[in-house]
Design a protein that fits this description.
The protein has one domain (6-247): Rossmann fold, CATH 3.40.50.300. The protein contains eight helices and twelve strands. The protein has helices at residues 45-53, 77-83, 100-112, 118-131, 149-163, 179-195, 208-214, 233-242, and strands at residues 6-15, 20-29, 34-38, 58-67, 70-71, 85-88, 95-99, 142-143, 167-171, 200-205, 218-223, 226-231. The protein has a six-stranded mixed beta sheet with strand order 6-9-10-3-11-12, sandwiched between helices. A four-stranded antiparallel beta sheet has the order 2-1-4-5. α5 (149-163) packs parallel to α6. The radius of gyration is 18 Å and the shape is globular.
Length: 248
């Protein structure tokens, strides 16, 4: 039996105030698969993303998180990142004083364990900026500073392309995007998946429209901290027609 790339096994997690948010969540993503996770506000989607990242805001009270069969439940965010786990944030942070290029160089150097020059990265960065409709001048600008919401989301996808992780969690990357920006981001994600067929992705979203572009292998519905149904893209289409009440 092939070991899944990424798993959660009966995962329970609570916030700092002791409120349990994840209540036995089990999920398995194989290499090369794109999974979509859909759920209403308060269902635990962003909490799951934070827990998979290793955020100290939440405490795992039971269950495990596994990466390539290894228990990483207690790993810190930086160790997970260096190992090949990537997170695209719903609300990307601004980092004044650090250019996009220098950020990517430092992050990729940490990932590979060796120092890289800016010249080694520049052509790749510019190539992906063109695909993601990012102004090349942004390579010299401070990370996310003064960026629009759509530009920040494109920049998250740029990081995914350059850093070459093995598993990526995309937390509501489509949030706040207009139709044109959504198409650009979706096309970028598809190109990354085509370029790196072993990449596994968990795409967290409210909306079916992103999935129409991405065509995920498996769609999951999350309610009250648990996955209550899984299926193919038709499940998202059913959800779009009937709403979450059909699973409550």
């Amino acid at each position: 039996m092939t070991t899944p790339l990424f798993e959660t096994d009966n995962l329970h997690a609570e916030a700092d105030d002791g409120t349990e948010i994840l209540k036995g969540l089990t999920l398995s993503v194989n290499a090369g698969e794109i999974h979509a996770l859909m759920g209403p506000n308060g269902s635990g989607k962003s909490t799951l993303a934070s827990v998979l990242l290793g955020s100290p805001e939440y405490r795992v009270t039971a269950g495990r998180v596994l990466f390539k069969g290894e228990d990483i439940t207690d790993w810190s965010p930086d160790v997970r990142s260096k190992a090949g786990v990537f997170m695209a944030f719903q609300y990307p942070q601004e980092i004044p004083g650090v250019s996009v290029t220098n950020f990517l160089r430092q992050a990729l150097s940490a990932r590979r364990g060796e120092q890289l020059s800016v010249l080694d990265l520049r052509m790749s960065i510019l190539r992906w900026m063109d695909k993601l409709d990012i102004d090349p001048s942004f390579a010299s600008r401070h990370l996310n500073e003064g960026f629009s919401g759509g530009e920040k989301k494109r920049n998250e996808v740029l990081q995914l392309a350059i850093l070459e992780p093995e598993f990526a969690v995309l937390d509501e990357t489509d949030s706040g995007l207009d139709v044109d920006a959504l198409k650009v981001v979706s096309n970028g994600l598809r190109e990354i998946a085509a370029d790196r067929p072993e990449l596994g992705c968990l795409v967290i979203t409210h909306f079916q429209r992103l999935l129409g572009y991405l065509k995920p292998d498996i769609v999951h519905i999350l309610l009250d901290g648990k996955i209550v149904d899984s299926g193919d893209l038709s499940l998202a289409e059913q959800l779009d027609r009937e709403g979450y009440e059909a699973w409550r």
